[in-house]
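Reader question, answered in our methods column.
A reader sent in the components of a multi-part assembly and asked whether the whole thing could be modeled at once rather than chain by chain. We filled in our standard form and ran it. Here is what they sent:
COMPLEX SIZE: three components
ENTRIES:
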Amino acid sequence: MADIIEMPKLSDTMTVGTLVKWLKKEGDAVKSGDMLAEVETDKATMELESFFSGTLIKIFAPAGSQVAIGAPLCAVGKAGETVAAPAAPAPKADAPKQEEPKAEAPKAPEKQPEATPTPADKPPTEAGGKAPEVLPPPAPAATGDRLKISPLAKKIAAQQSIDATRVTGTGPGGRIVKADVLAVAADPTKLKAPTSGPGAKPAGAALFAGGGVANKGPVQEERLVPVSNMRGVIAKRMVESTTTIPYVYLDIEIDAEPLLALRAQLNTGLEKQGVKLSVNDFVLKASAEALRRVPTVNCSWEGTHIRHHGAAHVAFAVALEDGLITPVVRDAHLKSVFQISTEVKALGKKAKDKKLAPADYTGGTFCVSNLGMMGIPKFTAIINPPNSAILAVGTTVAKPVVKNGQIVAGQVLTVTLSCDHRVFDGAVGAAYLGAFKDLLEKPALLLV
Amino acid sequence: MPVITYREALRHAMAEELDRDPNVVIMGEEVAQFNGAYKITEGLLAKYGPKRIVDTPISEAGFIGVGLGASMLGLRPVMELMFFSFYSVAFDQIFNNAANVRYMSGGLIHCPIVLRGPANGGTNVGATHSHTPESIAAYHPGVKVVVPSTPADAKGLLKSAIRDNDPVIFLENTLLYGESGEVPDGEHLVPLGLARVMREGTDISIIGHGRAIQMALKSADILKERHNINAEVIDLRSIRPLDEETILNSVKKTSRCLYVEESKPFCSVGAMVACLIQEKAFDYLDAPVKRVNSIDAPAIYSPAVEKLQLPTVDSIYQGALGVLK
Amino acid sequence: MAKKETLGSEYYFNLESIPVSKKTPTPKKAEDSGYNARTAHINAKLGNDELIALYRDMVRIRRFEERCLRSYQQGKIGGFLHLYIGQESVAIGCVSVMGDDDHIITAYRDHGHGLAVGMGMNEMMAENYGKYTGCSKGKGGSMHYFDPSRNFWGGHGIVGGQIPLGAGLAYGLKYLNRKGACMAFMGDGAVNQGAVHESYNLAALWSLPVIFIIENNGYSMGTSQERSSAGPSLAQRAEGYGMNWDIIENGHDVLEVRDKVDRALKLAHDKSLPSVLEIRTYRYRGHSVADPDTTYRDKTEIEEYKATKDPLNYFQNALITEKVLTEEIIAKIDESARAEAETSAQFAEASPYPTIEDVQKDVYWEADHPADRKSQGSLFFN
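And here is the structure of the entire assembly that came back:
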C-alpha cells in the first residue's frame, strides 16, 4: 500500500503552501531523508523531506500549484503500484465528512423499520489504495462560538465516539467536563438535538426511552434536518439498485426441524468447548453450498459481460444502533459451519465496535439478510450491486404443516431470493432455492 | 516515635551535623550568645563553643560572603538569616556568587553552604520582614531551595541540606517553629526533591508548600465533610529540585489541581507548577489549574487584615470548590 | 583645589568645578627617604635567576595582554576585556611572596594574577575565546579565571563582590588551622561598595588573616578617585576599623611591592591580623577595551607615566644597572613571551567550543556527580 505524502505545516502561521518545484519525478527511487520538492510558505521556501522509501509512484500536486496543509502531494510506494488520489481533507472548521463514500462506510446509515439492508459500499476499484481511516466524531461545527470543553472531556468523548457538540456542559461558562460526557455515555437520551451540520442522529434513537410510561410530549422534535452524506449515498444506491435491476422475487418455505435438531445436538455436545452455533451460521453455509450447486447465481452484471466468481464471499447484514452494515465471510464455500460461526461473531463485534475495515465489508459476491430475530416471517431485500441476488431470511414460525398426510405442528422458515433477471432467470433462481432448501432440510450435508 | 517541635527538630539537626562533621559551622546574628532570635540555636554555643557557633554583626552581605569564601576551602557554614527577608541585602553574594561560582570556574569549585531562616508573613512585622522568596531563589540555576512544613521534614531536610555539596536555601516559618510533630529517632534524612502525599484522594490535587499546605489539610477535611469530596493533598517540601513525578501522577489521577502557597502570584512556585501541569498533563485536565496566593500587595501591617491577606483554611476551601466546578 | 566642597547654602554639588584627573598628594606612612626596597631582606636574598624571573613574568603579562587586545579587535573575544597593561608589577610582586598556604582572589582585571600564579597562556586565551579548552571550559570568559589548585579563586565580575569571599577564605584558613593568608584584590572603585566595608569590619572583628589590596590605578572606569571617594587615602579608611594599613606609593616598583606585601603577610601569618594595602599603579588602556578612554584623562598623563614609571622599564633599567640583565637576555625574554602569546592565540583558535550539552554541566555538584546524588526530582526545567 502506498504512502501518501501530504503538505506539511512548515511555519506556525502557514495555511497553504506552493509546490514550487519537484526535485524528483514519477518513477524515481526515493530514500527516507531525500528531499522531494521545494515548498514555498508564508515565511520561506523550504524543502520537503520524504520519511518513506520506495518509488515516487504518483504526483498529485503539479509544480506551481497551491496546496492546503494536509492535502496530498504525492504517493511513495512500490514500483508499478497504482494509486488514486485520495480525498482532500476537509477545511479545518467544518466536519470532516466529504463526498467520498469510502470514508463513510464504517458509519452505516440508520436502521429502517423495513431494514432493507444497506449495500456495502463499493469496494475500492484500485488495488492497493490507501485505506481511508475510521473517522473520529465530527469536529464542532463552526457556528460562531468555540466549543468549551476540558481536554480530558474531549479525550473521553473521542474515545467513546460521542459528539461533543451535543453534550450539555455544566462547568464554568458552560464548559463540558468529564462528568458531562460520562453522563451522556451512560444515558444517550441526554444528548442534545443536533443544531446543524452533518451526522444528525436519527429521531428514533435519540428519544427512545425504553420501557417508559406514555410520553405526553411530541413524538419527536419538530425540525428540518439536512440529508447527511451517508444517507444521501445510501438513497442514491437504493434508487440505483431498484431502478436499474429487473427484479424477480422467489420465495420458498423450508422445514426447519432437522436444522434445529442438528443445531441443538451440536451445541449440546460442544458446549464444554464453548461452541454455540446459530441458525444463521447454517444459513450462511447453506447459501454458499447452494451457490456451488447453482453457480450462475454467483455472478455479476458488467454491462457487456457477466463475471462469474470462483469464490462465494457471502455477506451478512448486521444491525447497528444507528444503521446497518454487511460484513463479508470470505470463501464461505471453503469454510465449515464452525469457522463461519466464529468469523460471524468476530465480524459482528467489530461492526458494533465500529472497527470494520473496508476489506471486511467489501468484495462480497452474495448477501444474506436475516430478520428472523425481529419476528418478520417473510420479506424482500434489495440487491447489493454488483451482486446479482440477495437472500432474505425470515423468522422460524411454528405453524401447522402436512407431514405424511397428517397435519402436525411444524417449524417453517421462509426465505425470499431477489434476482437480477439480467444475469439469470427465474428457473435458475428456483433451482438455487431448491438447492438451498435441500441443504437446510438435510443439514448434515453441510457438515461434510 | 518522639514528638518534638519544629524548632527542636532544626536544633537537633544542626547538633547532629555539628557532631558528625567538624567542618560544619553555624553563623548568624544572635545565634550564639543570645541563643537565637527564635531560639533555634539555643544551647548550641554552650555545647560546641564559639568556634563552631559564631555570632555575626548585622552584615548579611559580609558574613554570607565570608561563609561562602570559607566553603570554597571545604567548610560547611550554616548561615542563619534572622528573617529571610534580609536576603536582599546579600543578593549579590547569594545569586551572583553562590549560584554562579561553580559554573564560572567550569566546575572547579563547589560551595556547600546552607542559608536558613524564616520566610513568612502573618506576624504583623510589616512588608519588609514578610517576604516569601522561594520562587525568586528557585529561579537561579545553581542553588537549591527547600521549604519544610513539618518538624520531621525540618529535621530531615536540614540534615540533607547540610550534607549537600551545592548551596541550599532553607526556608522556615516563625509560625511553624512551635508546632509539634512526630520525628523519627536516630538518623532521619529526607532527600531533597521528594514531595510528600499527605493525604490521598481522587477528586482534586491540592498541592503546595509551607504553612499554607498544612492549612490545606483542614480545608480537605471540610471538603470531605460538606461535599464528600476526596482531596489529595501534597506537600512539595522541595522547590528546586522539584518532584515533577508526584505532581503529574496526582493530577493524572484527579484531573484537577489547586496550588496553595503564601507567596504573591506573579511568577510564584504555583505559576511554575501550573505551567508544568498544562505542559505535561494537558489531556488529563478537566479544569484549569488554579492557585491560592497571598493578596498581591506588600504585606499589610494591620493584624486583623494581614491574616486575611494570607491564604486561610476557608480561602483554600473556596479555591478548591472553584476548581471542582 | 576643589576637592572637598562643603554644601553650605547650596542645594547641590557643583561637579563642574572639580578638575579632571588631578592626583592630590596624600599622607604617607612612616616609611620615607632612606627606604630602599632593593635592600629589604625579601629582595636582597634574590639571586639573579630569580630577579630575571620576576622581570620575565612581567613581560609575559604585557605580551599576553597585547595579544588579547589584537584578538579582541579581530572579533575573537566577546564581551569584556580588562587589560592589566601598566600594572604588571603589582600582581607579580604580590604573588611572588605568596607561600603554599596563601590564597588569592581578585576582581575582573585578572589576567595578570592568573599568569602570576602559574596558569598557562593557552588555557587563558582559550577561555577568552570561549573555547572548551579554556580554564573555565569557556563558561566564564576573561573576567572569570580560576585555579583552585594554585590557590587562585577567581576572577569576579561584580565590583567588590569578591571581597567578602576573600575574607571568607581567610576565615576558612584560620578555622582549619592553616598558617596561610588570603590576598583579596580590588580596584580603587570597589572601596565604596558596602560589601567591602562589611568585609573590613568582619576581618578586623574576627582577626582574619586577610590582606585587602587596593590596586589604585586612579580611575574606577571613567571616574577618578577624587570624584569617587571621600576622605584622605583609600587605605587609611582601615583605621576606622582598627586595621593595619599601608600605601605603596611606587606600585610600579616590583621590589617595593614585594617588601610591603610580605610584611603584611607576616602579620597575617604570625598574628592572624588583617591589613589594607593601597598600591598606587596605573593602567595604560581604558577600563575595558570598549572604553574610548578620552573623556576622563589626558593622553599626556599616560605618556608621562609610561616614560617614568613603566614597571617593565623601571625594573629592566635597575637590572641592567646591576648587570643582571643584558640586551640579549631582554630580547630573548621578549621574543619568547611574544611567541608564547602567539601560540596561545593559535591554540585558542584551533580549540573546540563547548557543546550545547555542556551548558547545563558544572551548575550543580550533584548533577555532575550522578553516582553520588542524594536528591531526587528535577534540577533543571528545560
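What stands out: Residues 211-227 of chain B form the longest helix (17 residues). Residues 3-182 of chain B form a domain with the Rossmann fold fold (CATH 3.40.50.970).
Send us your own complexes using the same form.
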